[in-house]
Structure of phosphoserine transaminase:
Amino acid sequence: MSLTFFTPGPAQLYPTFEQHLQSFVSGQLGSISHRSQQYRDLHKFTVDQLRILLNVPDTHAIMFLGSASEAWERILFSCVELESFHLVNGSFSKKFCEYSTALNKYAHKFEKPMGEGFTADEIEVPEYAELICVTHNETSSGVQMPVSEIHKLKQKNPDKLIAVDMVSSAPYPDLDYNLIDTAFFSVQKAFGLPAGLGVWIVSEKCLEKARQIKNQYSIGAHNDLPTLWKNALNNETPATPNVMGIYLLGKIAEDFNKIGVGEIRKATEQKAALIYDFVEKTSGFSSFVKEVQNRSQTVVVANVEASSADIIKKIKEKGMVIGSGYGEFKGSQLRIANFPATSYDAVEELVQELGNI
Amino acid sequence: MSLTFFTPGPAQLYPTFEQHLQSFVSGQLGSISHRSQQYRDLHKFTVDQLRILLNVPDTHAIMFLGSASEAWERILFSCVELESFHLVNGSFSKKFCEYSTALNKYAHKFEKPMGEGFTADEIEVPEYAELICVTHNETSSGVQMPVSEIHKLKQKNPDKLIAVDMVSSAPYPDLDYNLIDTAFFSVQKAFGLPAGLGVWIVSEKCLEKARQIKNQYSIGAHNDLPTLWKNALNNETPATPNVMGIYLLGKIAEDFNKIGVGEIRKATEQKAALIYDFVEKTSGFSSFVKEVQNRSQTVVVANVEASSADIIKKIKEKGMVIGSGYGEFKGSQLRIANFPATSYDAVEELVQELGNI
């Protein structure tokens, strides 16, 4: 039986995935040299499609890493000489913060319990922090920070760099890259691809900062920003990249562009409304995130009175896979991904079956 | 027209690749959680098959990274507090050395011109070097260091750690992991898979060293050895891994094991003999590497009197792709990969067509 995955990543593969994979195989693209014009054209196609999709200006490069977690490290190496500042409200924002400590930086943090969000007004960025690290969508708790609050935070702190983790939400957040210095995501979430590729969007300002830090400290050796940037100018990467992942990502981004990112965002909100409406109105279910503006549009987290394992098992019998809560909430919550790969009809079917349990 | 790739990576895909890819897709493995038992079983299968293939004892973990270049960085972070030592005789051994400098370590080196190799007897390891970095197969020049010389080098220096880059030769070198502390490779060479995955074999001794270094220095944040190791014990990875690459690698390793690694090594030598024989006996061609024991069995580099670009073009018209020389040798050399994906018959056809030019 073919299953439909509503898991927050790896997730349901995008419907056109198999067709693009077939083109990759029949074109023998797994064997082409990563120093050939054929590769550079493929690379440029993906960058161009992402630039259109996410409205990324030429001041920012779009680069490829092994994962979004690698982006955490490369951003901290490149943008922080001594001190970073982190908004922490879940497992992934916490890991970003811990990476800073592991690189021997001083990591300031403003921490809230899981399920709670942040507004720009309440955030005081420490004087010597060089970088503000924000998680647009906390995959562990289903909390999002509204894009308007992220923009406001940068406007309040124009002299700091700001990094946005949009791992499990891109291309949903409409970030203004005149304000955002760097952002990143991975492909196994809303892009509906197998895991193994991270995308790093990064500005000239970050590059300058990396060059300046390098005079005194290590900024890493593998995929260090100046080397990545130099290669990106030539549509290449320093090491042999995940050519298959880059190709497939370009094709999916092209599919998204044909639909239009506005349509994709609207559809995301419509499907999210369907899930939240169900969760709010159905006995035995409630939304973990109380503040409406902090509710993620791409990963819905619901408290459940019954055992989450039982619900997951019963729903799987209907051909659908949903995620458990994260960490301590494993048994008492469900996480339901709402990515472009799952249609409105599929979400309708899911909430109907959840209601039948 | 379908092409046969004799390029040194990305290379010809292994004949069973498409069939395994189809199983991956039909099993919906691109959507499974990397924290599920299904993933842990898949992960363990690949590790077990590699352990059999490469004869890796339980003192060593087998772990997955984004690329072999990432392994350079992780090894230097984990095994070098202050000083490393590098045998440099080409572009890739040089990059390994430069990574050490970029991490603010002191990188000693013993350097020879491209095309020349090393013997254990001539190598004096500096007193304070903690790690000896050896490239078994220098992809840029086609020089290999005999495994017996690598083993001898460690026996001469039992108190130093030794790292072996076998990116473009594994599973050919029969390393003795009672002597070798760490080794690594990537999958787009002799394993005939698309790029995007590095494999890192690493001993408990390296783990101890990493823990000791961590008391005083950063050992990196992303995929740091203690965290990788802890996850590997549970057949998991710290971040979402390249599940597709790990699955395919396990299947190809299983295919290799069915043939037997001894057979694969013998076939590699037979095919290499065919190419070297042609290169030595044909006017207009000569082997770049003069010392027979230093001639790579997996990447043959030939000097050519005609323009390499012309030869490459003419051979492509016959449905075969060969590589140009590396860097300054681009125009005057050919690089011909000899990996398991290309059969004896295919190599025979290649040398025949090269002879017809």
